[in-house]
Every structure is written in C-alpha cells, then in structure tokens.
Amino acid sequence: MKQHAPQAWLMFALAASLVLCSTGAVAANGHAAEVDPRIGTGGDGHTFPGATVPFGMIQLSPDTAMPDFKHAYKWAAGYQYGDPTIMGFSHTHFSGSGHSDLGDVLVMPIAGDVKLDPGDPAKPGSGYRSRFSHASEVEQAGYYAVTLSDYGVRAELTASTRIGWHRYTFPKDRPAHLLLDLRPSIYDYPGKVLWSRLRVRADGTVSGCRTTRGWAPGRELCFAMRFNRPMVSRTLYDRESDVLYKGFKGPGNQPEDHDAENGRALEGVFDFGKLAQPLLVKVAISPVSEANAIANLDQDGNGWDFDARRADATAAWNKALSAIDVSGTPDQRTQFYTSLYHAMLAPTLSMDVNGEYRGPDHQVHKAQDKQGAFDFYSSWSMWDVYRAEEPLMVLLRPDLSTQFIRSLIAAQQDSPFGILPVWAYQGLETWCMIGYHAVPVIADAYIKGVRGFDAEAALKAMVASATYGPYGDLADYMKLGYVPIDKEPEAASKTLEYAYDDWSLAQMAKAMGRHDTYATFEKRAANWRNAWDPGTGFMRAKLGNGQFRTPFDPTYAGYGSDYTEGNAWQYSWYVPQDVAGLVTAMGGDAKFVAKLDELFDAKVDPGHFKNVEDITGLIGWYAHGNEPSHHIAYLYDYAGAPWKTQARLKQIMDSQYAARPDGLAGNDDLGQMSAWYIFTALGFYPVTPASDEYAIGRPFVPKAAIHLPNGRTFTVVAEHLDDAHPYVGAVTLNGKPLDRVYLRHGEILAGGELRFTMQAEPNRQWGAAVAARPAAMSAYRP
C-alpha cells in the first residue's frame, strides 16, 4: 500500500463502524444499504466502486489509472483502492474481469485552468487528474461521490439502465469546465483508438463515437451528452501526433474551432463560467450509432432531477436484493449483500431503446425472435460464470435467464462462425478462455425448468458449438477423444472441459427427447478418462500418438503447460459430471479423500505462481482466487466424508473473503467469486450445473429466506451456528430427517425449510452412505 494507506484504512474502519451502528434500520431501508462497493476494489478483486443498476448498460465509475497494457492487470476495472488520484469518470467497466477494456466516454470536471493531458499521478498539477481522499468518498449501490481536492469539486454519480447521471458542485469563485477525453481506455496503449468523432449539435447536445482495436477488435461505442446549463464556450481538439495519447507534441496540439472533429485523438472542453448551482450532466451510450444514443437519451433520460434518479437506482437495488433475506453479524450481511450485488452486475444490457444491438459479425441486428421482442445482453465470461453465477440467476431470476438465453441464441445466429459466445461483450467476441460453456448455461436453465426460449434453436446452437472443428482443436477431440498437446496448447484442460460441456448438452437433449443427440454427447462426456493417467494419479495431456507428454511436473503452471490457469493439482478434480467415476479411478473413497487432504494441506511456496497472476487465494495447492478450484471442497461429499467438506468450506470462507477493499482473494470474474460465496453461505452449491442437484455443504448465516419467483419462500435455518460449532450434526427438510448430501432444485422451488443443527464435533455418519451422495455418470440413481 502507498504511504497514505493508514489514514485511508482508518477512515474505512470508521465508516464500517458507522454501518455496524445502523444495522437496526437496515431492514426497513432495504438491503442496498448493506452493500459496500469498496469490497474487491483493492488487491486482485478488480471490481469498480461506481454507480450502476442491476444488469445495466451503464457502469459510471472513477478511473484512478489507465496504464499501458503490460502493467495494467490490477486496474482491470479502472480503479485501485490504493491510488491517490482520479483521472476522470468513464461510463463502461467490467466487474472483476481478469482481462479488460472499456473505460468509454471519460469526463473530468475542472475548476480553473484546464490541462489537456492526465499528467503524472506522482506529480500533482502536471495534468487534469486530481488528488482525492477516501474520507470524501461515498460508495453505495447505485451512487458514488467524491471530492476532487485539487479543484474543490464535489462529484456525484448515479445511473439508470442506459443513462449515466452526473452532478458536479464547483467552487463559486472559479470558472467551471467539463473535459471530455476520447483517447484513453482501460488497458491503454498507443494507437488503440482507430477513429473517433465528436460534435456539438445546435441544441447543445454533445455526441460522438469511437472505434477501438482493444480486446474485441473494431468495437464501436457511441454516446450523447447534455447539460442543464448553457455552455459559455467550447473548444474541440484533435490531439493526433506521431505518438498517440502519450506525450503529445507538434501541430496536433492546436485547438479546432469547428462544430465537429474527426480523428484518433479527440478532446472537448466545455466551459460554463462561474456557477452558483451544480452542473448536471446526463450521458447515454449506444453500441450502434450516435442517433441511437440520442434516442436512448431522449427516452430514458428525461428531466434533471438527480436525487430522483439516485432514489430510483436505490429502489432498483432494493428490489433486486430482496430476493434473499439473511440474518447474521453486520460483517456477514455486508459480505452477503455485496456478493449478491456483484452477482447482479453482469451480463449487461447491450441494446438500444429501438431494440437494435451489434452482433459478433459487427452488424446491427434487431432483438426479435419467434417469441417476439427480447432484451439483448452481453458481457459473458463463460469460463467463469457457468459454474455458480448463472445457476444463481436460474434460482433467483429465471425471467432474466430466459432473456440471457435468447441473447445467446441470437449471438450464435449472428456469428460468422455459428457458435455461441465464449467471452463476449457489447455483442463482440474476444475468444478468451476455453470450452463452450454457454452450453451448460443453457442446459442448466432448461433442466431446472426455465422456458420462454426456443429450445430447438438452443439445442441446434449448442450442437453447432460442440462440433465446430476449428475452435480449440475440436476436430481432433472429436476424432481422438482428446485434444493432443502437440496440436493445441492447454490440451488437458480443454479435453476435460469439453467432456463436461458434452455431458451438459446430453442432459438437455435427453430432456427434449432427442435420444440420438443424447447418445452422441453422453459418449463424448466420458472422454475425461483419456486425460487420466493412473501411473501418476493426475490428469495429463496426451500427444497425437496417444502417449502422455513428458517430462511431467504436476506443480507446473504457465504458458506452454497442459493446463489453463492451473496445474495438475488443480485440474485433476475437474470431472463434475462424473465424480463417482473419478473416485473409482483414484482408488476409492479413502484414497480420494487422502488426495484431497494432500491438496489442501500441501506446503506451497507463496511465490510458486508469481508468473501466473490469476492463480491466487492459495490453501495448499487449492487456489480459490481462480475458478478451476471452486467445486473442489465439495468433492468430499462424493466420497463419504461430508464433514470434511464442512471443515474446508470454513477454512475457505474465513481466509478468502473479508468486508474490506482487498476482501476478495482473486478476480470476482463478473460475479462468480461472489456467487460461490452466496451459495456456500446458504449451505449448498451447484457442483454440476445441468443436473438438478446441489451438493450440501454447511450454512454460514443463521437464517436465510429465499423469496422465489413463484411466490414461495425457501428458508435455511442453522441452529447453534458459531465458530465453536462448525460441523453439521443433523439436517431436516420440512421437518423430516434428510440423510443425503444433496438437495434437488425442485425441493427448493416447492418452498419450505431446510434446517441444520450444528455441533462442535464432526458427524462422520451423516451423509456417508453411497446412496446419500450426489449423482454422477457412473452412479445414476433410478
């Protein structure tokens, strides 16, 4: 941390204490008051503290730095809690991503003289960025405020679905300006902006677009901006020179006095004179056109009542967060509702008021299918969110799951490759990460009863994705039953993940009565066995000749390895569709449990993964900061030792989550880390999405009431819950003993009560029987 950190942490602690003192009023005010958007803004959480609404198109947030690509990892959301300056407020951000882009339409209120470059954060006054103190920040669900100390400007931000709302209170004795900089982006580098345009229209509306060659090449983002005060003057700049954005010199520094500019390095400065009242600004964005951005502003941005829009944002969050009522300590409630808040940030709406969106073919499409009009959503980190984030939405918001799936089908139909999104945002594909995990997202929803989308079109899209040979060497996978490492990197991980995706596709085909498709993909789901090496006891990559690649080091992770963001210790447990088969392959219950213990209890040098920035949150080889480990603690359930699952979950919850800025052990990954916390706090987890079962762990809150969309309530109660009673002694479901370690989705939807009796010592008999375990390919129950 920087030298100012002790004071900042003192203010954080003071703010937390104020929250603790006010918990009695929280229930009446709504759960939005229990959200702390600071959590995850430090360390590697990669969350942003700014204003947004559930699944909204706008994420209006401060950017403390937009460094070059090589040094940008910690700034994936544009903001790091330890930074001393703010360079402006931009309108688009990812929450918790491991890679980044966005940071569109950056504005900075300035009192007094205007500088045109951000400057050096280590040299106050060298540019337009400003120092600030955390003591002046207010971070709430749907609202952010800060004082820019170099200007004496109080900045307040709120958001609606498509509009960012700003209120800036300037010193009355200094001229007020708003600077708009179309050059910077998150993960910035020279030449990232391919082209941009900026214009001031006759009615004072400022609009424009820019095209970037970032994570999604050729992305176009347009905007429209209006002010509640007339401009006294304005100047547009084309700052292009031989070196774009960094160190501008030469004739490009000259202002241009036109109504519009086109170029790759545009800025605008809008002057308002001395203001006795706050300057209000409202900004709409569009992935399609300036005209659409103006239409969004006209329809969704009526009036100038900032406080009313803030109240609307708070109300939207209170409604969304009311899906679950939990009791617990103030810290538990803060962590729980902040997790639920983070889980409801993505995917984001990516469609204009007229129903238009931009697809992966870069063309403009209308959100219309056989069922009629729908809302198009994007921001899909599929490798992360299929595990728990999207299953959480199936449970809490099946209506939105329907919209999400219709969006996925539309994206597949628009794709020039004919496959479902892999890692997409604003409709465009990045091809980041592995697997075809949109398939289990759709299958999980269908298996759990979500309807309202074209199931035949969905299954067709799923099969197309699972059989597109050029993607990740699926051609060899379909031919050989595995991905050969001499043809494709990270081949062990790809083989394992493809096999699970195949299984999930098979489950949906079976439920639809498509038995030929079911048989094909159920057979492919067993391909995990082609990665299993009984000689070493690990999953490994094979060569095209069928031999395992040598030499082999199960601890190695990194570029050129057999695995994606992991090593053999982390990936050898990835058979969620057939844990019973994996138990058998490892030699039975006792050996399986012993190897799990070895994983968690290993003595690992903290610097072992220093060159693999995503592998964080280590407990032995277990890495909670990255998704391949997320299901592992629940695997004791499948080998007759659920009490060990309970102990490991406590170890993870105690060490990997905290109600402070660095309170996430790794990237939140568009809600996955947070969704893991929510399920685990409730006492169960979807180890195998696309089944209708949840593995039971243990609860971490004394009471939780899930208010289901069907009008029923499912309540989880934990008796004697405290640190002295970490183990499950007994469980009842609706008053009857529950001796199994799984819960069915339908049992939750029926409403009722799941009651845990906690105790000091483990109950080694509860849930130990083979018949009590969750299902698997190798152990289906009749």
UniProtKB/TrEMBL annotation:
A GO molecular function assigned to this protein is: hydrolase activity, acting on glycosyl bonds
N-terminal signal peptide: 1-27
Keywords recorded for this protein, A-Z: Glycosidase, Hydrolase, Signal
Domain Glycosyl hydrolase family residue range list = 292-759
Ranges for domain Glycosyl hydrolase family 92 N-terminal come to: 35-286
**EC number in record:** 3.2.1.-
Identify which top EC class this enzyme belongs to. Answer: hydrolase
Family matches, as PANTHER family? PEPTIDE N-GLYCANASE PNGASE -RELATED (PTHR12143), SECRETED PROTEIN (PTHR12143:SF39)
Instruction: Please report the name of this protein according to its UniProt entry.
Output: GH92 family glycosyl hydrolase
Q: Which organism is it from?
A: Rhodanobacter humi
Native organism taxonomy: Bacteria, Pseudomonadati, Pseudomonadota, Gammaproteobacteria, Lysobacterales
